[in-house]
Amino acid sequence: MSLANNRAATGNRCRTNRLIRTHAGNVPPSAVGTILCEINNLGRHMLQVRWDDGLCAYVFPDEIEIVATHQ
User: Fold this and answer.
1) What is the DSSP letter of 14?
2) N or C: where does the chain have the smaller number of CB atoms within 10 Å of the terminal CB?
């Protein structure tokens, strides 16, 4: 699933495809979390994710992959 074209990703489970460095801390490769919301900030599409370890951070769609869709 391409997140670049999917505006209804909220609630989906996702996994990082590499190390992501954020202001809240590092998110390791293969970390799993839930997408909380999508935003557009200065022309950039970003997703807010609550990771299973409790960290909450914004990521770009190309930094994650969908592993389960919200029903």
Assistant:
1) E
2) C
Distance of CA 20 to the CA centre of its chain: 10
List the domains of the chain with CATH numbers.
3-68 (2.30.30.40)
Q: 21 is written with which tokens?
A: 């460095």
> Measured between alpha carbons, how far is residue 29 from residues 13, 20, 24, 65, 70 in Å?
15, 8, 16, 11, 22
Does pLDDT of 2 surpass 50? Answer: no
Q: What is the pLDDT of residues 9-62, one digit of tens each?
A: 899 999 999 999 998 899 999 999 999 999 998 889 999 999 999 999 999 999
